């Protein structure tokens, strides 16, 4: 009978995954810092550093990423946004950072094509999404739901949706920092918080289509140049 992965094997896989997350966050911090290295006056940089600290990135690694912002490698980096379709017409927004645009578009196109999808033109799917601040909180009871609702709306949030013991706070990107700050000040720690592309409507996928889509999302995430992937599928395991 075959043995499962060894402890060392699992650790190596986790280290590799952690390293990939660090790489993406270092790029985000480096590019954000080009607009100013002071997090107090650079909301994007502050958000990047918050995400890095949330995954226990060492402070010296963050400092090195900030210093790289003035270097030639940072100047060579470009931000790209691709729009396309996955299996069953699932809409995708794929945000990338790269120093080689030809490599990136070839890799993204290849991943989509191999999973029954295709690359679209700019604007072909973006209209199906809204750019929003999204903060998710665990709210196991009515009291916690009410607290999140009250504080978020007072701080400038547009909507709070409660479902499955979670409350999702939605706000305009320009209000994200103020809303997050108010909730944190009330000792409310988000499960996740970011400015995202949120789909207006989700399309149901299941069975083989869902497996193909999940495999595509994994393949895109494995690409070093891909920072974030947003889609409009309603996944059964989500």
Strand composition percent: 15-25%
- Helical fraction equals 40-55%
Which geometry do the CA atoms define?
A: globular
Number of helices: 8
What would the average pLDDT be, to the nearest integer?
A: 90
Oligomer: single chain
Q: What order do the helices and strands follow?
A: HHHHEEHEEHEEHEEHEE
For the termini, the CA-CA separation is 33 Å
**Broad structural category:** alpha+beta
| Strand order in the largest sheet | 3-1-2-9
Instruction: Give the C-alpha Rg.
Output: 19 Å
Stretches where pLDDT falls below 50 for ≥5 residues?
none
Topology:
Elements: H1 7-32, H2 43-54, H3 59-68, H4 72-75, E1 78-85, E2 91-98, H5 101-114, E3 118-119, E4 129-138, H6 142-155, E5 159-163, E6 166-171, H7 176-185, E7 192-199, E8 203-204, H8 207-222, E9 226-231, E10 233-234
Parallel strand pairs: 8-10
Antiparallel strand pairs: 1-2, 1-3, 2-9, 4-6, 4-7, 5-6
